[in-house]
Amino acid sequence: MYNSTMPELEVLSRSTCRGATFLHRSVVRQLALQRDSRSLQAAASATAPAPAPSGSALTNNGATVNWHSQKLKHVVDSGDFNRAAVDVVFKEALKMEKVKPNTKESKVLSGYIMSTLFYEPSTRTRLSFESAMSRLGGTVLSTESAGEYSSAAKGETLEDTVRTVEAYADCIVIRHFQEGSAKRAAAVASVPILNAGDGPGQHPTQALLDLYTIQREIGRLEGIKVGMVGDLANGRTVRSLCMLLSMYNDVQVYFVAPEVVKMRDDVKAYLTARGIKWTEASDLHEVAADADVLYQTRIQRERFLDMNEYAAARGKYIIDKDLMRILKPTAVVMHPLPRVDEITTDVDSDPRAAYFRQARNGLYVRMALLKLCLADGHPDIPL
């Protein structure tokens, strides 16, 4: 069991995410000049002999793995990852847990700039990415409600926005309401794109932190039983997590959802093709008694066109103290957050309630991803 004394991520007020961050043109110019200066320095040294490869990460079995051999310039789809790439991310995330302020490790991204483009609301994802960049010494250019406060409001396409912002930043973190938007962005970008959620499609960084949390909490990723509960049709987190879980042996998945938000057939077909056992169940208590991980999700009101369907789905599956009595002592409850009423607050004090530790793990995993993605082509960033 994960150390329950670990400080939990402070619950952030929704008010911190209201309003856009307005950037004065002079600040943007200054940061752009800083980036251009670094690029010119890199170009000037391009004729120098290439340094010998160093700092290769190790997988759990001791074999060396070069992150760059994974050909993951962007992080847009969980299906792009293999086990070797996941191992590298996790080993780097473990290092990130130990990074202290004002140390060499806390300055590895000094001089680098990350831009966040969020067309949908976010607390944990946006702030954890921004905190991750800051904790590694980098700079953040941020815009919230980009559809309203960026040139998208004037009709600018996503592709044109990305081509413009990449002139000011070394990587772009994007959340968008349209499925497939991150792939569109990556198709035109010359800097790394990190998908922070594209509608009901993918959320690969959440899936990685979820997998990391499972490893840290129960100590293994093989031979586990995972119960996924709630809005599975619109839940990009569960879709992405299923793709990562499919790489591990002897994994069994239970889908527990109201009829109108059952898991989509494409995910079930994906798991079947990879030999992963999955079952659709209606009794949450039976699943809770057997699961190693109970992954609860919110019924996403914003995805419904028919509010009658939303009303029928909401409140059907609740994790409360009574259900926790059924859960195995070694099992954990996870949730990508935010929650509404699908986990009662009296569950929070149970040591098996891992969702705030899960949120904190998002910081470490995103620190690792930023460092790894920006290290590609930048030998000054040590791996």
Automatic annotation (TrEMBL):
Could you tell me which residue ranges the Aspartate/ornithine carbamoyltransferase Asp/Orn-binding domain spans? 222-372
**Biological processes, Gene Ontology terms:** 'de novo' pyrimidine nucleobase biosynthetic process; 'de novo' UMP biosynthetic process; amino acid metabolic process
Extract the coiled-coil ranges from the record.
none
Segment forming the signal sequence: none
Pfam families, A to Z: OTCace, OTCace_N
Pathway of action: Pyrimidine metabolism; UMP biosynthesis via de novo pathway; (S)-dihydroorotate from bicarbonate: step 2/3
According to its UniProt record, this protein's enzyme class is transferase
State the InterPro entries in the record: Asp/Orn_carbamoyltranf_P-bd, Asp/Orn_carbamoylTrfase, Asp/Orn_carbamoylTrfase_sf, Asp_carbamoyltransf, Asp_carbamoyltransf_Asp/Orn-bd
Determine if Transferase is one of this entry's keywords: yes
Q: Which reaction does it catalyse?
A: carbamoyl phosphate + L-aspartate = N-carbamoyl-L-aspartate + phosphate + H(+)
Q: Which UniProt keywords apply?
A: Pyrimidine biosynthesis, Transferase
Q: Transferase: is it a keyword of this entry?
A: yes
What sequence ranges are listed for the domain Aspartate/ornithine carbamoyltransferase carbamoyl-P binding? 73-215
Recorded hits in PROSITE patterns, A to Z, give: CARBAMOYLTRANSFERASE (PS00097)
Chain segments carrying region Disordered = 42-62
- Biased composition, class Low complexity, residue ranges: 42-57
| EC number of the protein | 2.1.3.2
Give the GO molecular function terms.
amino acid binding; aspartate carbamoyltransferase activity
What does the similarity note say?
A: Belongs to the aspartate/ornithine carbamoyltransferase superfamily. ATCase family.
Q: How does it assemble?
A: Homotrimer.
Q: What does the function comment of this entry state?
A: Catalyzes the condensation of carbamoyl phosphate and aspartate to form carbamoyl aspartate and inorganic phosphate, the committed step in the de novo pyrimidine nucleotide biosynthesis pathway.
Tell me the protein's name.
Answer: aspartate carbamoyltransferase
Provenance organism: Volvox reticuliferus
